[in-house]
Specification:
The relative contact order is 0.19. A three-stranded antiparallel sheet has the order 1-3-2. The N and C termini lie far apart (42 Å). It contains three helices and three strands. It has 79 residues and is mainly α. The protein has one domain. 43% of the residues lie in helices and 10% in strands. InterPro entries: AlpA (IPR010260), Prophage_regulatory_activator (IPR052931). This is AlpA family phage regulatory protein.
Length: 79
Amino acid sequence: MDNIHSPQKRFIRLPEVMEKIGLRRTRIYTLMEEGDFPKCVKLGKKPKDPNAFDCRRVAWLEKEVDQWMDSRLEERTTS
């Protein structure tokens, strides 16, 4: 696959999202629930065995977070 012509995808975890956009965890999840912020991606699978370790790690696609930031800037310039 040619990396020059295909955009790179990168997951970023919550601390990096918070640092990047300047919002706290609670506000990010509230915006997600309201449909105003990109949804997170679950990185682990739910185990079939209820006694097994359940990976609840989530991340966001950096590109989607960047697009959300761009949309905030567009709103600012059109207001």
